[in-house]
Amino acid sequence: MVLTLPEKQTEYITQWIRDWFFQNGPKANAVIGISGGKDSTIAAALLAKALGPNRVTGVLMPNGVQKDIDDAKRVVEFLGIRAVAVNIEGAVKALTSSLENCVDPLTGEKATLLQKLNQNSQINMPPRIRMATLYAIAPSLFRGGMVCNTCNASEDYIGYSTKYGDAAGDFAPLQCYTVTEILAIGHALGLPADLVDKTPSDGLCGMSDEDRFGFSYAVLDLFIRTGRCDDDNVKRKIIQMHNANLHKLRPVPACPWLNAA
Prior knowledge:
47% of the residues lie in helices and 7% in strands. It is of the alpha/beta class. The protein is globular and about 65 Å long.
């Protein structure tokens, strides 16, 4: 399912960004993490088009050595935006060590409650540290900054994001667009095709996103937009992933105030 009139959609998103900044920070900068992947590349291009490259700050945040860091550098150079690189490896290692060596607050002895972080903790820690990094940089810029959320509708639908990590941000220009639609927008923007069509991967497990899911973004996007899926097993898996991760999309539930009078 291909997005119709991607040029029109591009202008629409660009104007939406301008309007949002006019209301929330007329002179503020846009701050965005640049990974070299399609979402941050296309979102950064939209920001540069909407605000001008001088109001966009890209932040490269490798965790030690990032094999495709050159792609992130190409994005910055191609768009002409300002950029800074912050290696988060030290922060990740320091927090991991602190957690694995936590103590019992009453005895001062090493706590037995937590001895080793599980896989989910290890995977989700870097994205949360990256988001903390973006929010540390944003207010430190001249005239301040607003942090861009680069999530898309496809990944959000099945919960392929980190709560309070890449799922956070002040504004989200791509969150209502599927991967298929975002790719069309990327090409309409005239971005290098190899960056737009780069195989999506989390850079951690050595597998592509689609290999991990067990289905393609094209299949997922068709289901999101039409409810159609020819493979019943895939359809059930998509629905299960969606239902299990709805908490990531909903506001934090708050117990309502009780008037006990």
